Amino acid sequence: MRKIYGIGVGPGDKELITLKGYNLIRSCDYVFLPSSRGNSLAGKIVSDYIVDKKVIEIEFPMGEDNEERYINACIKINESLSEGEVGVFLTLGDPMTYSTYLYLLLQLKKTELVVETIPGITSFNAVSSRLSLPLTLRDENFYLADGTLDEEILKRVDTVCVLKIIRNKLDIIDKLIKHGFDYVCVKRCTQENEAILYEKSEILEDEDYMSLIYARRK
Amino acid sequence: MRKIYGIGVGPGDKELITLKGYNLIRSCDYVFLPSSRGNSLAGKIVSDYIVDKKVIEIEFPMGEDNEERYINACIKINESLSEGEVGVFLTLGDPMTYSTYLYLLLQLKKTELVVETIPGITSFNAVSSRLSLPLTLRDENFYLADGTLDEEILKRVDTVCVLKIIRNKLDIIDKLIKHGFDYVCVKRCTQENEAILYEKSEILEDEDYMSLIYARRK
User: Fold this and answer.
1) pLDDT tens digits for range B110-145
2) What is the pTM (predicted TM-score) of this model?
3) In Å, how far are B7, B124, B162, B202 from B192, measured between CA atoms?
4) Among all residues of chain B, which has the CA nearest to that of A148?
């Protein structure tokens, strides 16, 4: 058997990986790291845990997206693992939530590799703890979106998190205000350069692609 | 300073706690465990980690709910911790997501205790990995509810998770079918007695209060 684990390393704090993810990284034969122009945030988060491991970077350039890169990544993983070997593919946050791993997973499932996914702490769960504000109280509901907000949903929910806000910030904030939400923008939650932005003007000026907006009905 | 951490221990697998949560449990002075008639699932999950710790059970009987019990729990925690001591309050899944900790937190904030919350893996994140199905692909959205589903939201989302389905299963399933979702019920994901139910009839017969439904647009 040859096995590959998709592991969520959490939002940034190196201790917000699960024990399961940590133990698999420590015991595996190969660590596969997604990187963009030589940078890997997932790799940075677990850097203390992989110093003595065989690490293979897989290039996923930002902005570009086509099936071919997932096919090529899958070939690289498949060719690297010999019989009896175990690899881990690391991904920021949770592997099943807005992750490139989901597209790689579609390719991995076509191979003879055994695939298992280990969940990770999402950015929105981390933000909720960081702000000390509920994601959901009893009988409430939660809406997770990226980039755009649907007003019919907004009318009907208690808490909202929007990822990838950079594309569409003014529209997102205006809709949240219109429908009676308090909102806050959190940049790189639990990472070294974390920041919390409360003012509309500073949120609009922020250009970080890893910022999210947490909003809660007043 | 006296400090209390609210820690999510994850959905059931003892390795699905974060390294941060684990390290705080190992280093703290007191472990506070919510229990119902002497049973604590959070306590069971971390049982290997707390054998040598001072453990204080706090009774939260199922079904009953009033502010007084949170006030009393807060008093117990506040009275137990001396200057310089650290306590952890353990909670299943994530502390900010449908957790009794959220109500305790409101009381803790009124004291002089320093409070910090450590996120945990939610049941719905664990289910998504377990089923190897996305919570959200790029440009998709996600709707989290407990007990009831809003059809206007259902029309507009890609993935839905419903917790506490026991109150209202037939209505939930009928709405999911009506709006074009595939669905599956997962009982006690990553716990010893985990089960995955695919048939409507077996889901309706199931009486576990810790089952959730994961649904995805066809």
Assistant:
1) 999 999 999 999 999 999 999 999 999 999 999 999
2) 0.97
3) 21, 17, 21, 19
4) B139
